[in-house]
Every structure is written in C-alpha cells, then in structure tokens.
Amino acid sequence: MERHVSVAIDGPAGAGKSTMARACAKRLGFLYVDTGAIYRTLGYYMRLMGISYKDADGVARLLGEVNVGIVHMDDGVQHMFLNGMDVTDEIRTPEISAYASGVSAYPAVRSALLEMQREFARTHSVVMDGRDIGTVVLPNADVKIFLTASCEVRARRRLLELQQKGERVTYEQVLADMQARDRQDSGRKAAPLKQAEDAVLLDTSDMTVEQALDAIEAIVRRKLG
Ligand code: DC
C-alpha cells in the first residue's frame, strides 16, 4: 500500500493556518484539509435551525440528523456541503466563527467528526489544519507545526480580511472576538488547543506571509528528509 505523508498545522484563530497550509499543500502536491470548516458547517446548521450552541440537548439532536460533505475541487478549494447545499461562503462570518467554536467544545461533536478527518490522511498525503490535529486527530503525523502570533497581530490580520470582504467591523470588536475564541478553544476539556510535545513552534508575529511560508517549508523538508 502507498505510504501517505501527513503534515499537521495547529494554532489559534487568525494565526494564518489556512493560508499557510493551503500554500504548503500546493508546494508539496498534497491535499489541503481545513478541519475548522467542518465545525463551521455544523455551527452554521445550528444557527439555521435556531439552536444555541449552549443548548447541549439541541446540539446532540441536530448532530444525529445533519449530513456534512466535503468536496475538494481541482483548484484546491475545499467546498463544504450541508445536507447537499453548498455553504462554503456562508460559513465564513464572525457569527459562525463563534458558533463553530461553541459546538466544537462538545465531546460528542468531536468524536462524530474524528473518523471523517482521519480518513483523508489514510487515503491521501495531507496538510491538515485545525486545533487538535497533532494532538488527537493525527498523533502520528510526520510533521507537526504549531503556528501562532500575538493576539493583536492576529486581530489586525483578521480585521483586514473582513474589511476586504466589505464587513463593517472595528479592531476592538475583532480583538474581543479573537480573545473570546482563544479562551474557549484553549480552555475546553475536550481536545483543547495546545501544542503537541513533538510539534515545532512557529511564531509569525513579525513575519510576512512569504517568510512564514518559507519557514514552514523548511521545517517540513527538514522533517521529511
Ligand atoms: O480554524 P477555524 O477558525 O475555521 O475554526 C473554527 C472553530 O472550529 C474554532 O474556533 C474551533 C473549532 N475547531 C476545532 O475545535 N478543532 C479543529 N480541528 C478545527 C476547528
């Protein structure tokens, strides 16, 4: 059987994981898997059905009926389907970020999504990004990177992204959302965001996208020999 290689990139919101992981996958010719999008799709469904992510019974009920599909297009874009409906763009709002973070704290939600994520790494060489890839999803990943940056830098980057999409938000709002999400993702009991012991830490606070990407590629090539 062909041996597949896996690169796990974890870190807090706004650290640049998806930009880095997508570009890194392209350079290596691997499949890019964005696991946050799976939690976002579930969060979007909860929002659509009017269920608060604080309602544990409601979340458990909807979990049983929801169908989340992932399709990787030829251009490398990962499309998310919710009960057959393409929600790729709809899941990218600050409100859905909060829903995703909320539903992702439930152990039942995490275990329901585990196999789906592992299956990608069984069948492809992957660059997978998330919060618990190196610690839980792919503990035997060939390369593990923990990507971070100061909260202020991450908030400024996220503000730019949202402004480019035409969203009217202030730096203070984005920073407050970022801090709340950090607290929630790192403080939860089930698979909290934390650096795996064997992960390489990369702080991109003072790096450009190109510099960060070169640093990641150097780590990957060194690890893979
Ligand atoms: O990476 P992202 O911002 O798209 O992720 C949205 C939320 O999903 C994040 O706040 C926490 C959750 N998440 C998770 O718990 N585990 C993952 N592997 C990926 C995301």
Write the layout of secondary structure elements.
Elements: E1 6-10, H1 17-28, E2 31-34, H2 36-48, H3 56-65, E3 68-72, E4 78-82, E5 85-86, H4 94-103, H5 107-123, E6 126-130, H6 133-137, E7 143-148, H7 151-164, H8 171-187, E8 200-203, H9 209-224
Parallel strand pairs: 1-6, 1-7, 2-6, 7-8
Antiparallel strand pairs: 3-4, 4-5
This protein binds 2'-deoxycytidine-5'-monophosphate.
2'-deoxycytidine-5'-monophosphate is lined by residues 13, 35-36, 39-40, 97, 100-101, 104, 130-133, 181, 185.
Question: How does this structure look, described?
Answer:
The chain is α/β, with parallel strands linked by helices. The protein has a single domain (6-214), classed as Rossmann fold (3-Layer(aba) Sandwich). Helices cover 51% and strands 16% of the residues. It is built from 9 helices and 8 strands. The strands form 2 sheets. The chain has a 5-stranded parallel beta sheet with strand order 2-6-1-7-8, sandwiched between helices. It has a 3-stranded antiparallel beta sheet with strand order 3-4-5. Helix 1 (17-28) packs across helix 9, helix 2 crosses helix 4 and helix 4 packs parallel to helix 8 (171-187). The relative contact order is 0.21. The mean pLDDT is 94. 2'-deoxycytidine-5'-monophosphate binds at residues 13, 35-36, 39-40, 97, 100-101, 104, 130-133, 181, 185.
